[in-house]
Write a structure and sequence with these properties.
The protein is about 50% helix and about 15% strand. It has 10 helices and 4 strands; from the N terminus they run βααβαααβαααβαα. Strands 2-3-1-4 form a 4-stranded antiparallel sheet. α3 packs antiparallel against α9.
Length: about 170
């Protein structure tokens, strides 16, 4: 089974839409194997967005600093989801990084609308509800950054109990 990290960003927490979005992942058949609320340090976000995601390298200092400012707005909820092709499927469910471009039916298409231009005009990162790992090596590094091994749970889902012999 593949694992992926998702982080409900401060705008999702502040709007009170975490439960609705978690339900979408559960209905798609993903198993939640880790979850916690926290307010990471600037250093943690630097490691996440530059050390792993190379945001500053790819997009520049201004976008990087705007993203860190946006993430500092409040607590986040980090989760690890597990399932078949979890990374690609979750990314499809989440939608385009720019909410304005996200298709209806995706999480960002249904819950956000801000454009890159509007975010840049305020010197902030785009409020796009959620982060989801982009590829397997990134997911592995992100999960290691956000969770210790003891925080990841291995348990059978109800339906798995009836498909495997004792």
């Amino acid at each position: 089974m593949e694992k992926t990290l998702i982080v409900f960003k401060p705008d999702a927490v502040q709007r009170g839409i975490i439960g609705e979005i978690m339900t979408r992942f559960e209905r798609a058949g993903f198993k939640i194997i880790a979850a916690k609320m926290l307010q990471p340090s600037r250093e943690h976000y630097h490691q996440h967005y530059e050390g792993i995601g190379t945001l500053k390298t790819r997009k520049g200092e201004e976008i990087f600093e705007g993203q860190l400012a946006t993430m500092a707005d409040g607590p986040v909820i980090a989760m690890v989801l597990e399932g078949v092709d979890a990374i690609d499927t979750v990314r499809k469910m989440v939608g385009s990084t720019e909410p304005k471009s996200a298709l209806p039916g995706t999480i960002r298409g249904d819950y956000a609308h801000v454009s890159y231009g509007a975010a840049s005009a305020t010197g902030r990162g785009v409020a796009n509800i959620i982060h989801a790992s982009a590829e397997p090596k990134e997911a592995e590094k992100e999960i290691d950054l956000w969770f210790s091994d003891s925080e990841l749970y291995d348990y059978p889902a109800v339906h798995e109990k009836f498909t495997q012999p004792r």
